[in-house]
Amino acid sequence: MPLSEFELIERYFRRCGAARADVRLGVGDDAALLETGAGMTLVAAVDTLVEGVHFPPGCSAESIGHRALAVNLSDLAAMGARPAWALLALTLPSAAASWLEGFTHGFAALAEAHQVALVGGDTTHGPLAVTVTLLGQVPAGTALRRGGAAQGDVLFVSGTPGDAAAGLALEQGRLAAGEHSEYLRRRFLFPTPRVAFGERLRGYASACIDVSDGLLADAVKLARASGCGVELDAERLPLSAALGALGTRQARELALAGGDDYELCFAVTPGALGRLEAELPAAQWGYARIGALCAAPTVRVRDATGELSVAATGYDHFSAPQP
Q1: How far apart are CA 156 and CA 219, in angstroms?
Q2: Residues 86 and 35 in one domain
Q3: Same domain, residue pair 233 and 288
Q4: Owning domain of residue 41
Q5: CA angle 134, 162, 229 (to 5 degrees)
């Protein structure tokens, strides 16, 4: 016998995520009641994942649950915020118990790891789509933004961009499988949002953005928000061994233009570099210097041979081919 909407909520979502003392009233009422700390700024982000657009048909339910929250966690990380509460709107073609078990396992595991409480949402019938609204907090006046950097600031990126794009290509059969396939697939299916690093970047970064549409495209967004241009050094790109095995040219293209990395691209003033390197060592936090901001509207990518031709547009929902 199929579950009713209310039975579905009670069984799978009533206690999904972390238990928090600041949740006065959560799932089950008309709205949630949440306490925010004095001297804190509320930070809000929302993202929708649609089957066939953000993940291939047949993608595992556990991955969908993980990614639905991860993309929002990455947005809050780029603001230097600490996540706290989530709202989930879930549109399902059917209330299949096995799918819901996998989805809630993926969502809840990541929520608990970041002390996020699911406090409400909605469930409807229709083509598979997941919308998560994530709320968090940051001390007043300390939030990171895309704007705020200046010409001469140094650009960095966390992690190893391009892995997720290669993983998606493997999922879609556009890339031949090899010895590193499982690693690359997991980088797409289960991305790691850099929440702790984003919090630590407050006081060091002059600007920050999460890398979701492609490193170059998102670096350009940061630069333009700051009234600058951008120059990247392709030889400084931090490529994983798995991505590098595809060959330098393809690896660099994926690192620069591929999406779904959910890493952080951030700028640091020359005067703050010493503090950054001493207090947040790159070896510990996993980031690399990749270029600098320059006079607008310049967008250049160089290597030892000269300037490279790389599209800086990134993913666009209304012009890009669908997966």
Answers
A1: 9
A2: yes
A3: yes
A4: 5-139
A5: 80
How is 66-100 classified by DSSP, letter by letter?
HHHHHHHHHHHHHTTPEEEEEEEEEEES---HHHH
Instruction: Give the integer Cα–Cα distance in Å for 273 and 278.
Output: 8
Residue 265 placed within a domain: yes
What is d(CA 10, CA 313) in angstroms, rounded to the nearest whole number? 43
User: Taking the model in full, what pTM does it have?
Assistant: 0.91
Shared-domain flag, residues 135 and 13: yes
Averaged pLDDT, groups of 10, the chain, 323 residues long? 70 78 73 81 94 92 98 96 96 93 97 96 94 95 95 98 97 94 97 98 97 95 96 97 96 94 98 98 98 95 88 52 47
SS3 letters across 251-277: HHHHHHHCCCCCEEEEEECHHHHHHHH
Q: Is the peptide bond before 281 cis (omega within 30 degrees of 0)?
A: no
Same-domain status, 69 and 211: no
